[in-house]
Amino acid sequence: VSMQIQRFSNPLVTVTVEMPTEGWMSRNFGSNRADFCEERGNSSSYPQITVNVWDNAEMFDFYLDKYENVQAEPSRVIAGVEMEARSYRHQGFDTVEYHGKLTDDVYIMIQVKDLDISDGTQGCNVLDTMCFSFTEPDGTEMVFNGSAGELPLSLPTPTPEPTATPEATSTPEPTAAPEP
Predict the structure, then answer these.
(1) Of 7, 42, 75, 164, which residue is most buried, by most CB within 10 angstroms?
(2) How many CA atoms lie within 13 Å of 23's alpha carbon, on the beta-carbon side?
(3) What is the Cα–Cα distance from 79 to 145, expressed in whole angstroms?
(4) Angstrom distance (rounded) from CA 45 to CA 113
(5) For 5, what's the count of Cα atoms within 13 Å in the CB-facing half-sphere?
(6) Nearest to residue 99, comparing CAs of 48, 145, 30, 51?
(7) pLDDT tens digits, 19-70
(8) What are the distances in angstroms from CA 151 to CA 80, 81, 112, 140, 145?
(9) CA angle at residue 165 from 162 to 168, to 5 degrees?
């Protein structure tokens, strides 16, 4: 499943995940947020993984004063990017949040709300298969995935090193040995 999200002047980011075959859904919630969630209960109460795109790292702490029991958690590699982590309780939900920088203008925050993400679970599989892609203003396609991390798809062509030609090579003139 692929969904597109964008924050103001940021590039349009495509978030791709491998969804479990049954019992899950995806939806956009505003322009800068994508939800991947279990289908049960009402829209605010089911377990979910939410992906937000931001244009700066300060947004990670925008609501920090509203969270309860904030604790640092071990980092996790998602889409090939080392993400910092913290856990907290907010509006009655236990949440694990991962956040990281893709480029100087693209920051990703992933919130896992009331969902088991231990090894082998459906939630873990969604995180492990997550990929991000977008086009930089200069036209470079950026792809972040679990196997390669940041990978520009249109790589610049390397300039070959100049090679010396016989005409361009100079040899020092022999000098006379000093007289004794």
Answers:
(1) 7
(2) 9
(3) 4
(4) 9
(5) 27
(6) 51
(7) 887 788 887 776 778 888 777 655 555 688 989 888 888 878 887 888 889 9
(8) 10, 11, 26, 10, 8
(9) 95
Place of tokens 């990281």: 100
What token pair was written down for 49?
Answer: 């993984």
Are 102 and 144 spatial neighbours (Cβ–Cβ below 8 Å)?
yes
Q: Is 118 exposed, middle or buried (0-12, 13-18, 19+ CB in 10 A)?
A: exposed
pTM over 0.85: no
Look at residues 100, 70, 61 and name the one whose alpha carbon lies nearest to residue 82: 100
Q: Taking the CA of residue 16 as centre, how many other CA atoms within 13 Å lie in the half-sphere pointing to its CB?
A: 10
Provide φ and ψ at 13, rounded to 5°.
Answer: -100, 130
